[in-house]
Every structure is written in structure tokens, then in C-alpha cells.
Amino acid sequence: MNTFTTARTHSSQIFPEGVVLECGRRLAPVEIAYRTYGTLSPARDNAILICHALTGDQYVAEPHPLTGKPGWWDRMVGPGKPIDTDHFFVICSNVLGGCMGSTGPRSPKSADAYPDGKTELWGTDFPPLTIRDMVRGQELLIRHFGIDRLFAVIGGSMGGMQVLEWAVTFPDKVFAAMPIATAPLHSAQNIAFNEVSRQAIAADPDFAGGRYWEHDAIPARGLGVARMMAHITYLSEEALTRKFGRRTRPGQGCTPPDAGQPASLFSEIFEVESYLRHQGSSFVRRFDANSYLTITRAMDWMDLSAEHDGDFSAAFAGTKIRFCVVCFSSDWLFPTSQSRLLVRALNKAAANVSFVEIDSDKGHDAFLLDEPDFDRTVRGFLAGAAEQAGLSSRPASPDPAPGV
Amino acid sequence: MRLDQRLIAGMIEPGTRVLDIGSGDGSLIGHLYRTRNCDARGIEIDMKEVTRSVSHGLPVIHGDADNDLTHFPDDAFDYVVLQRTLQAVERPREVLRQMLRIGRYAIVSFPNFGHWQMRLRLLLTGRMPDNAVWNRPWYATPNIHPCTIRDFLALCEQDGYIVKDWMAIDEEGDRAPWRRSVRLANLFGEQALFLLARAR
Fold first, then answer.
1. In CATH terms, is domain A12-187+303-389 a member of 3.40.50.1820?
2. B126 in a structural domain
3. Which residues of B touch A (CB under 8 A)?
4. Is A313 an active-site residue?
5. Which of A99, A119, A360, B146 has CA atoms 20 to 30 A from the CA of B9?
6. Each residue of B68-92: pLDDT tens digit?
7. What is the pLDDT of residues A168-215, one digit of tens each?
8. Dihedral sign, CA of A343, A346, A350, A356?
9. Is B128 a member of any domain?
10. Which of A185, A168, A163 is nearest to A315 (CA)?
11. Residue range of the domain that includes B11
């Protein structure tokens, strides 16, 4: 079966006019695949856009159609949950460049088919993409819904980068913004990690220069290694120690093999190894390698100060948006220092900012996991902002602070 | 809300922009937002208090007076408030200067080291004070820059700040009677509250 031309049904909207990308090229038509939860109010003022991370997708709060697993933020989004769909209309769309229904490297390059009936896909010919391009794609969808202003834009990691690009690119279309575990620029270290991922994919013979879809193959080894490496950066030493320590797999000794036995260089000895291999192999079944290349490169281009001679605050000059910046103490991929850089830039722009560092040992992935303080922060910030925005349907106002 | 916070709130015009440095549980900014329609924000050094405030919908950032005021632009606020904290910052003079750079008015409260009990204890026992405010030994106290009401007035004069209003406050935070005599206030006021404006 050709996994690349099998039609999957994602609900989506096609925009014939497309998007003019930052590189100057018009990508048209553009298809944006999305999911929504809750009900849009008659005033269309209660919409929250959730932006997904590098390997996330639009299936926020429902089982994933490929893996059957619960939505990636199921614990955060739903009736009565911190992002409460009893009050808010939640939209999440697959990013441009993605592989879950939105236009990306796995989309047909043109309407013409090859003589053998196959369709030529974009692959590595997909135009260079940026976070801002992704946001422009989302903006088409928001307009399609007839929404003039989003009540809030929320996202973690690369999703947080999109939140910041929304604030900078469409400041009048956002009331509140919640960038989580993110940064206003992609650091040298993070570009370096992305480069290792890309090189792992390129080194896989099945990659075939990016035209693997012509051979009904996928660069599973390379993409798997890329995921394994990246997955380490999402965790923390404490989390890895807590989960696995130095435990060995059943049947494996805890000491090196005796003389005469094979050195077992490539067998799974430690539990952390088999965990990572599982992460790699399950990832390649749901993600496209060329998408991974395109999106990681888009993250690398992220630098909100690039147009302002290194001054991040200039990007936010005059902003009326209410920001809530959240980071996690053990996140070393998007460390607190980078959130603080963002907060100081927002202060310099005299923006309305809240800034919380959640104490957690779970690393970058903490924003997806059970962190009660984080839940309270999201719920409280949204309730306070909804009160300020005067939303007709809003969750109960947060209790007044003690002493009021 | 503490009584002295009510006095502070009384100094603030409705509908203004306020920054509360050391906002604690957020009760002052919550009060200013809800009852006086102020755009009130906070800075707090204790992350637990920050999380609690934000969870209550209040705009508070994690930070402190010594390091985080420099990032705000001139005239970002109408009032900048520093409650019971001036004596604990590293560079009080610079903090005051920053407060009156980013705000039109500064509201400052601090424990008065000139209170008669302090003087008496030092005189009779030769030891550092030990009471509700000065409750830790000298080597462990966060209050590294104590001053008296007269010391504070001298600094205001030196740096050219205009004292728009001031009062002595008792331990509970209520207004003390000796508000028009600096000498009496400096002797009997447990705390002091000042409303300052920058020199023209």
C-alpha cells in the first residue's frame, strides 16, 4: 500500500488564494486541516486557537485517528477542564508544512499525475517555511470562521512560537496570548539538535534524497533516530532517572558480559534504550520525514528580533495583548532564561504580562503532563482575561485573592 | 487586605496604571482592579505567590525590585508601589530612582528604625532590636538597609523627590496620630508611608 496517496479524511478547508510565504513565493491553493471543540458564541468572541508543537497535530482533545491514543492535550481541553469547552470555542489546526491534512511536503505538488498514476509530491521541493507562514495559514482559517479577534492563542514549544508570531503579526486579532515553554528565538543549541535530526534522516539510504515516496519507502531508521535524540531533549535527567534509572531489561545482567560472550553493542540492555527505540519506531508510523525537515527548519528561522536589530521589545511595541508566559524549572530545551528574555522584552514594551515558572522535574514535556500548578495558572489566566474581555459566556471569575 | 494597603489604595486615583513591587498574594492589585478600575500589575519574588496570583487572574510576573525595574520604559505607570520592602533591597536609592523613572508617583512604605523601642533597646541593652518586624538576628535578617523616617526624608531631599503626602502607621497598619510632626512620627511611628513625585 502506498502510504502517501491513501486518502485520509481530516476535516479541512481549502483556500484557493493560498498564502504568500515569507520567502516571497505564493503557496496556492492551501489546505488547512483542523478540529474544533465547544460552540462559537453568537458574538464570535470566545474562540481560543491552540497551536501545536513540532510533532503535534490538530487532534487536541479526541483520540488520534492513527494511533488511537487520547488527544495530546486531552487533560487540558474539554468540558470543565482548564481550557473549558463549555465556555470557549477551541480551534486547533495542523500547521502548514505538517503531515496530518494541511498543505505540506506530503501534499501533491501539482494536479498532474505521473504516467504510472502516482502523483508527484512536494517532498524536499516544498518552499522554505517559517513560523509566521504557519500563522498566516491559521489566520485564513480564523477568517473563514468569521472571527475578527481571537479571545486567546495558546501553545507550548513550537506552538508557543506561533503564539508569539500571532501577537507580532496580527496584534489586533488577539486579546490574550499564552506562550508556554518557548522562546522568542531558536537558540544555537536548539538549531544544533535540529541539525542532528536532519542529518540522521538524510543519512538513511531509504531517504533517497527526499523522494522516498516514489519507492513506497520511508526513511524509518533515520527518522526514528531523529526522534530518539529529540525525545531526550524533551525530558530531564531527573525524569529519566526516576523513570528508568540504570535498570536493565528482563534477562539482562547488571554487569558487563563475561569474556567470550558477545559485547552486545546493539542489543537493548538498559530500559531507557528500549523506551527510546519504542519512541522512535512508533513515531515513524505517524510522521512524515520531509515534514519533519521542513518544520524543524521553520523553527530554526524563528527570531522575533531579526527585523528590529536584535531588539525583541520593538516587535511588541504598543501591544494591547494580555500575555501569560509560562516555563518549567527543569526545561533545558526552552529554559527559564529564554522566557525571562521574552518577559523583559514585553516589560520594555509596557505590555500586560504575567510570568510563571512552574516547579517541575519533568523537563520540556512538563507542559503536556500532570502539573496542577500549571492547570491552575491556565484556568485562572483565562478566567481573568475573559472577565477583562467582557465575554458573554465565561467561566466563573476567579476567586478574589485572599484578603481582598 | 491589610490596613496599610487600604491607606495605599486611598492614595491611588481610579483608572490609573499601577505596578506593585512585591505584590505578595496580589490582594492590593486585585483590590485596585476590582474596586478602582486600575490597570494594576505585580512583581513578586516568591514563585508560589506568583502562581497563586496568576491563578486568580491577576497579572503578576516573577521578579524583584533590584533587577527587574530597569526593563520597564519611562512613564510606564502612574503609580509604582513598594510595600514594606525598601529596607530589604540591595540598592534602595537606585530602586527609588527606578520607581520614579517608570512611574509618575512612587508609594513607599517601610518599618521605621527610629521608633522609640528600637532606640531604647539599643540604648539599654546594646543589642540589635528584636520585635515583630526586626525579628531575626542581624546576620540572618533580610532587612539589610534599615532607615528612619528622617533618614528617608533626607534622601528624598538629596535626590530631589517631592513628598506629596506621608503618614506614620502603627503595627496593625492603621494610621498613627502624629502625622504632622516629623520628630514625633519618627519616635512613635512603627512604619511610614510616603507618596513621592519626581522633581520637575
1. yes
2. no
3. 1-2, 5, 25-27, 30-31, 34, 39, 41, 47, 50-63, 68, 71-73, 76
4. no
5. B146
6. 999 999 999 999 999 999 999 999 9
7. 999 999 999 999 999 999 999 999 999 999 999 999 999 999 999 999
8. negative
9. no
10. A168
11. 3-115+145-197
Separation of alpha carbons A67 and A64, rounded Å: 5
Distance from the A92 Cα atom to the nearest Cα atom in chain B, whole angstroms: 24
How many A/B residue pairs have CB atoms within 8 Å? 94
- Residue A331 annotated as catalytic: yes
What's B58's domain CATH number?
3.40.50.150
Residue B98: what are its φ and ψ, rounded to 5°? -65, -40
Number of domains in chain B: 1
**B72: in domain:** yes
- For residue B40, give the C-alpha cell: 494594576
> Is A364 a residue of the active site?
yes
Test mutation, A346, A356, A382, chain B, max B CBs within 10 A: A356
Confidence of residue A6 (pLDDT cuts 50, 70, 90): very low
pTM: 0.93
Angle (CA) B6 B12 B15, round 5°: 120
Task: Flag if A404 and B30 touch (Cβ within 8 Å).
Answer: yes
Asked whether residue B135 is domain-assigned, the answer is no
Note the Cα A294 to chain centre separation in Å. 13
Q: What does R_g of chain A's alpha carbons equal in angstroms?
A: 22
Q: Do A380 and B55 touch (CB under 8 A)?
A: yes
Please pick, among A52, A331, A360, A365, the residue that the annotation labels catalytic: A331
pLDDT of A5 over the 60 cut: no
